[in-house]
Design a protein that fits this description.
Layout (H helix, E strand, L loop, with lengths): L1 E8 L4 H16 L3 E8 L7 E3 L3 H14 L10 H7 L3 E4 L9 H10 L4 E4 L40 H12 L7 E5 L2 H8 L7 E4 L13 H8 L6 E6 L10 H7 L7 E6 L11 E5 L4 H10 L2 E4 L8 H8 L4 E4 L4 H5 L3 E4 L4 H12 L2 H18 L2 H18 L1
Parallel strand pairs: 1-2, 1-4, 2-3, 4-5, 5-6, 6-7, 8-9, 8-11, 9-10, 11-12, 12-13
């Protein structure tokens, strides 16, 4: 079986990490072959190929910003060869200025290929945004977009035309040969309300590769140069400055805590933050180091305003770390019984939950045990990969 993975990037970001982890697993652990097509960044994987022109990426980004619509003029002819020679197409993120998705879908339809499409966000069913928050216009037709300043950013609102265009293009896919994959029950319920509701939808939670580490928190903190005499509360986001990730709610309450509490941030560093109660580790790509950081902390706090899954929460569970998070989207699926859920955007309630949990060792042990159990039952990488391989096989057998 030959599988063609297509995503914005090969690495960097949640969708890319999920896609390339599955790609590598297939090539390293099965008799099947996975080929990875990506549009931005770099890769040293011999089975991956960059399929765009850098100039086209910049032009398309400019077009989105100033004309409200991404215009990809370049389309590598090699893409059709990859599509023709593969058994199944696995789509991931198609936005990001790097590919003409209309031409891509037309080629898939032309060659009558079965498709698995993993929804890492809601861009495929909205007029333009990746996360519509409480907006429900996408259910019947976008217009007057409230979030033109969010990714993918634009100065002109073309959400109405974008919604109609994507509705028409994506519904060309053969419903008997297409499976839409949602990483959460919450997102699956959203898709049922969209213009793709007539496609088969299956839920496959993202899988996390667990790293076996010693439980000696003291030794891990010494290795990472973290204080031994403080309670440490962790926050992780690749782009800490992304408003959706919600670090501002932590900053609002930062100075309300005693000196024996330290907040630890992993991700792009923020400027002009000088508090001695916040230590910024910067962006960390090494998964072993990142897991050591999780393991060395006492609580994971996730004040996100919107997700379709939440890899960082699942990573916390895999390391047995209790979670405090806003009660939004799919977060309750992951964090219920493993921590405390608080009202979205309520920084005072967030502060109260942290104070309630951080000094309660019995409650921390209970939530930690529940976290490890939930991870083993739902979010192991082996189960994740097995579920996808089963979907591939069923689709090919049916085609």
């Amino acid at each position: 079986m030959r599988i063609l993975q297509i995503n914005t990037k090969f690495s960097g970001g949640g969708a890319a990490n999920i896609a390339n982890s599955l790609h590598k697993f297939i090539n390293e652990n099965t008799e099947n072959q996975s080929i990875f097509l990506y549009g931005r960044g770099k890769s040293d994987d011999p089975n991956s190929f960059k399929i765009n022109n850098n100039l086209d990426v910049y032009f398309s980004a400019f077009s989105m910003r100033f004309f409200g619509e991404s215009k990809n003029l370049y389309f590598d002819k090699q893409i059709e060869n990859f599509i023709r020679d593969t058994d199944i197409i696995h789509l991931h993120n198609l936005h990001g200025y790097y590919i003409n998705y209309e031409k891509l879908i037309d080629l898939i339809v032309k060659h009558k290929k079965p498709v698995v499409w993993t929804f890492h966000d809601m861009w495929p069913v909205t007029g333009r945004c990746a996360y519509p928050y409480e907006c429900e216009k996408w259910m019947g037709g976008c217009y007057k977009c409230t979030f033109i300043n969010t990714y993918p950013k634009t100065y002109i609102d073309k959400s109405k035309n974008g919604w109609k265009k994507k509705n028409k293009i994506f519904n060309k896919l053969d419903k008997n040969k297409t499976v839409l994959i949602s990483p959460s029950e919450w997102l699956a319920n959203m898709l049922i309300e969209s213009y793709l509701k007539n496609y088969y939808i299956e839920v496959i939670p993202n899988g996390i590769k667990k790293v076996e580490l010693e439980d000696d928190k003291r030794r891990l903190r010494e290795e990472l140069n973290l204080p031994l005499d403080k309670k440490i509360i962790l926050f992780v986001a690749a782009d800490v400055n992304d408003e959706r990730k919600g670090i501002r709610y932590i900053l609002e309450i930062l100075n309300d805590f005693s000196q024996n509490i330290l907040f630890l941030s992993v991700g792009e560093k923020m400027q002009n933050i000088t508090s001695d109660k916040l230590k910024q580790m910067g962006y960390i790509s090494d998964r072993d180091v990142l897991n050591k950081i999780y393991k060395s902390c006492d609580i994971y706090v996730n004040p996100t305003l919107g997700e379709t899954f939440s890899l960082t929460t699942a990573e916390a569970l895999s390391n047995g770390i209790p979670v405090i998070a806003f009660n939004v989207g799919p977060i309750p699926e992951l964090a219920s019984d493993c921590g405390i859920l608080v009202e979205k955007g309520n920084s005072q309630e967030l502060k109260y939950a942290i104070n309630k949990l951080i000094y309660n060792e019995e409650l921390i042990r209970k939530f930690s045990s529940n976290a490890l159990k939930k991870y083993e039952e739902n979010y192991t990488f082996d189960k994740f990969a097995e579920r996808y391989l089963n979907v591939y096989k069923k689709l090919i057998d049916r085609s």
